[in-house]
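My main concern about presentation is that the manuscript never shows what a single data entry looks like. An entry of this sort, consisting of the sequence and the corresponding backbone structure tokens, reads as follows:
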Amino acid sequence: MHSVTLYHWEPNANSGKPMLALMEKGVAFNSHYLDLLKFDQHRPEYLAVNPQGTIPAMVHGDRVLTESTAIMEYVDEAFPGPKLMPGDPRDRWRGRLSLRRLERRAENQPLGLRKKPMAVKLYTAATPNGWKTIEQAKQTGPKMLARRAAA
């Protein structure tokens, strides 16, 4: 199987979604951190991967994928493991609607004015009790999300 590399910034709303999808599916991936405050996304090395200079981007074999929600859907279809979306069309619509609402909320928060990282807010919104840290989310998140999906 081809290797996977995820180019991302902090685990925020955009970078956090593909990370969670890859972790939920159990896909091993190379994490390539880009510091947006240093404009790493505009450096020639990254523009050779993704000429748009947007974050996140995922490389799988010779494919370069962009846009976090589209990457999540690709990961769900391309890799074995638990399905990330329900089988019922109405339930899938509800899942996509929830994601879009979270995306809109994230888009309306200017960088630097957030009280805590958006990823923490997304993880907290996705679970009944929330998580205290990103590390705790990485360790327990996939199991908790699976339990919620099964309920």
